[in-house]
């Protein structure tokens, strides 16, 4: 089966075409369309590049599945409505994902299409991990809770780690670190996601390229009430002007920030130190929750390609700035890099959904 994988953004469309068989998985072609006027135009551009290939099914990345979707599903009108209803929880992502789904269904009405959710892997979080300590009706009525994101990546790399060893994800306790422009850590206890650093939105958790990560809610209210910053402007700041970019004043790209730090830029050096410290702190917390881990897995653009950042996370610094003990002090047996392949997992899920097979 040839599966077209689509990732629709606000002004772009990324696509991959995978050949998926029981013994074969092969990337046939990939590409993107940037600054498109409409999703139909983007798809027309993609189809022009795909004209020499057969397409048998379509898989879509969807950021937020809320508590409606705990696994990948074949798209129908009801699923479209569900994704639309969940747009209130992911206004920056779900509407564009849905636009891509609707455009693809119009263009390819005879093909089955599957929605693969970034949140689905984390539906196994226990209540004590996903609930916030707010009045209980905020959870039950307003759905304010930790959902977690990057689930496609965390699920893939934990599967790949085990598969390379001829075993199953369920055989291991793993801590997976997806470090790119967006960053998150996940605790996976014998195949089950039991905690993750992103929360109600992708803002919570680690320092990221342009996102703030953890911040006291009181500080936000102070800025709104005392500094008279409009909530919408503040949300933009937290999402797009913070993190590495906001602290360093240089860039959201870790390579640029590190280069600037090495040239004596103290703000850049602080940004790098904050980034590594926050990751190590979450890793330590999740090692405590699981009583150690069989492996700490790095993935994503920074996680895969920056040995210096991995080394700084794993060594850490003590209160006086000295190198601390390595990860074995946390009960972590192995540290490794596993390149993520989210599009492949989406293609697999699409194939297995249509075939009625359980997901891996």
Describe the structure.
The protein is an alpha/beta fold and 360 residues long. The protein folds into two domains: 2-117, Nucleotidyltransferase, domain 5 (2-Layer Sandwich), CATH 3.30.420; 167-337, Nucleotidyltransferase, domain 5, CATH 3.30.420. It is built from 14 helices and eleven strands. Strand 2 (12-20) and strand 3 form a beta hairpin. The chain starts with a strand and ends in a 5-residue tail after the last helix. The model has no long low-confidence stretch (mean pLDDT 95).
Radius of gyration: 21 Å
Number of domain modules: 2
Range of helix content: 40-55%
**Major sheet details:** 6 strands, mixed
Name of the CATH homologous superfamily of the largest domain: ATPase, nucleotide binding domain
Report how far the terminal alpha carbons are from each other: 18 Å
H/E element order: EEEHEEHHEHHHEEEHHHHHEHHEH
Q: How many DSSP H or I helices? A: 14
Low-confidence stretches: none
SS-based structural class? Answer: alpha/beta
Indicate the overall shape: globular
């Amino acid at each position: 089966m040839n599966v077209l994988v689509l990732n629709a953004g606000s002004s772009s469309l990324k696509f991959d075409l995978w050949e998926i068989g029981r013994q074969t998985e092969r990337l046939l072609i990939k590409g993107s369309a940037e600054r498109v006027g409409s999703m139909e135009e983007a798809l027309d551009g993609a189809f022009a590049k795909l004209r020499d290939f057969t397409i048998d099914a379509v898989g879509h990345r969807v950021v937020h599945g809320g508590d409606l979707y705990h696994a990948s599903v074949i798209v129908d009108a009801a699923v479209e409505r569900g994704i639309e209803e969940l747009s209130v929880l992911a206004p920056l992502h779900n509407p564009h994902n849905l636009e891509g789904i609707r455009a693809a269904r119009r263009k390819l009405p005879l093909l089955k299409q599957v929605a693969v959710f970034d949140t689905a892997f984390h539906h196994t979080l226990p209540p004590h991990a996903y609930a916030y300590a707010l009045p209980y009706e905020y959870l039950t009525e307003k759905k304010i809770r930790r959902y977690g994101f990057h689930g496609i990546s965390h699920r893939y790399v934990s599967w790949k780690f085990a598969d390379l060893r001829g075993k199953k994800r369920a055989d291991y306790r793993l801590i997976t670190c997806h470090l790119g422009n967006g960053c998150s850590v996940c605790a996976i206890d014998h195949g089950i996601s039991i905690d993750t650093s992103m929360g109600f939105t992708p803002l919570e958790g680690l320092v990221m390229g342009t996102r703030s990560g953890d911040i006291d809610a009181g500080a936000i209210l102070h800025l709104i009430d005392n500094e008279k910053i409009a909530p919408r402007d503040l949300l933009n700041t937290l999402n797009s002007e913070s993190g590495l970019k906001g602290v360093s004043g240089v860039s959201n790209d870790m390579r640029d920030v590190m280069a600037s730090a090495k040239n004596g830029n103290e703000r850049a050096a602080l940004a790098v130190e904050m980034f590594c410290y926050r990751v190590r702190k979450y890793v330590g917390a999740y090692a405590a929750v699981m009583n150690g881990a069989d492996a700490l897995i790095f993935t994503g653009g920074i996680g895969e390609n920056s040995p210096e950042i991995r080394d700084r996370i794993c060594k850490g610094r003590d209160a006086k700035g000295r190198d601390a003990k390595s990860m074995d002090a946390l009960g972590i047996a192995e540290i490794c890099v596993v390149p993520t392949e989210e599009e492949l997992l989406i293609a697999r899920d699409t194939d297995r959904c249509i075939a009625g097979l359980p997901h891996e």
